[in-house]
Amino acid sequence: PARSLEMDVGTMRVMKKMASFVALAMLLHVASGFYLPGVAPQDYVQGDELNVKVNKLSSVRTQLPYEYYSLPYCKPKKIIDSAENLGELLRGDRIENSPYQIRMLQDQQCKVSCRIEALSKVQARQFQEKIGYDYRVNMILDNLPVAVVKMENDDGVPVKTYERGFPVGFKSNNDGDDTAIYYLNNHLRFTILYHRDVESGLSRIVGFEVEPLSVKHSYGAFWEDDETLLQTCNPSRGVYVSNAMEPQPVAEDEEVVFSYDVLFEGSDIRWASRWDTYLLMRDEQIHWFSIINSLMIVFFLSGMVAMIMLRTLHKDITNYNQLDNIEEAHEETGWKLVHGDVFRPPEQPALFCVFVGTGVQLLGMVVITMMFALLGFLSPANRGGLMSATLMLFAFMGLLGGYYSARLYKTFRQTDWRATSLKTALLFPAVLFGIFIFLDLLIWGQRSSGAVPLGTLLALCFLWFGISVPLVLLGSYFGVKKPAFEEPVRTNRIPRQIPQQEWYMNPVFSIIIGGVLPFGAVFIELFFILSSMWLHQFYYMFGFLFIVFTILIVTCAEISIVLSYFQLCSEDYRWWWRSYLSSGSSSLYLFIYSIFYFFTRLEITKPVSAVLYFGYMTIVSCSYFMLTGTIGFLASYWFVNKIYSAVKID
Fold first, then answer.
1. Model's pTM, two decimal places?
2. Are 163 and 150 in contact (CB under 8 A)?
3. Mean pLDDT in the chain?
4. C-alpha distances in angstroms, 477 versus 363, 422, 462, 464, 471?
5. CB 138 within 8 A of CB 208
């Protein structure tokens, strides 16, 4: 009988690549977070102008970003937008110039930015709303985000950590009254860390820190614009802003003066290591625990697969091949009896091929993205790089998706491959794009900068219809031209009757059970991924992530093989969809976990923000379903081909 040699060779190549990647991840010392800075270093001499840029206002309580100048902050004479990549636009980043005038190595004290003579009712409400929802201001200098310093205790040793951005303000309650009073952080004390090269005398910026303060400024009888001398901040008199001063309240008709200090501080930190404080990892042991937990699951499943392959299957194959006559064969039970139906096409073969093709497309995207991330090209220093790379790679991997979808469709002896190719190119992206447009309309209704501009939507449509769809169709053309995957046994014309199954072989039960172990292998790492998505934390531990992803692949493959074997032993040959759904059902547990995470870790109260959260988690869960389901099916397909090519069929 013909064997599926091509599938075997392909599987071996994938396994070799996976082993190489794991070795690479270990060599990179995953705990230290290897990364490339992402931009070329900029050298400065004393007096060079430094461009402080402002970014979005962000809050973990609403997940709705807003432009910096949506609040009545001080503005430059002309607002200039910086060029943003696709990922930055989708994240809601809006990078613009600022009025802060800073020159390299020149300290400044009590510099006045501007004054609001009297807050209007609208302006006061805007500030109060942002303070109430814990919004933070994001700024950028030399590609470094501004951060507030937090000293933490690590076994008695003080460790400096960073919190990205600084709060718009704070609120407190009146004594004996539940009425909240809002205060605005109107004075910023910037500390710019620099590293000087001894030989050249040039300096590079290695840190951008800020201490936000609230002070109700006072001055002389008249306001003289830039010449105004503040009484609450006067270096000549030794008066500096401190937390002991009266804070700046936010209320209608309140006068607000914005000011800032600039301090330069030499540092031993080299430019290549300047992101280390931002990316400081305090939970290394948890990640190793996650990997050990996942490996225990893999060892358990591997033991089951080994027992099936080495003992049960070997015994079955030996017995089947030693049967002397047809009567003895009819007395046998088990997976051999369904050899004439095991490769019978599944129900809805076209839809099944679409699901597999989309899963292959996602698998190729994830593997290549992980390779770039391991090499450091998608570090947090490269803002928006990860999302941009993911979208681009998904579009280009349409070639693989179309190829495998069409070739599998041909294996099912179907003829309308063009319609299947179009469904592969359109179905999954259309579902995701529909959810995305609905969420984008909600964001637009909130006047948030997270609403995707029309130009970006056109760019996404071009990626879809201009690149992905043509590549899927091209891949389908090549897939149809190639011979169908060979099957080791012939399919009977008349389907075999399936005997009544035991309760534990019920499709719904086995599918739900099949997703438990794949989810269990990744749920600890999933916590950190969700925290990076919804708590605005940096995630850069791609070495850990790659190892966990490899374990996920092995777990999905093994659980699908085990359940497919049990199903065939029960003389039920309808394994196609079940092999896909068994491992893919782990996406159900992912979504359930996201619900648990929402109520235990997040403080989202706005209904629109809750809809955004569950909408985006639906997109993530659907993608995860396609990915893990395809992995399970490919493993089962290889397994079924392997065992039926090893027995003698008359």
1. 0.86
2. yes
3. 86
4. 21, 12, 21, 18, 10
5. no
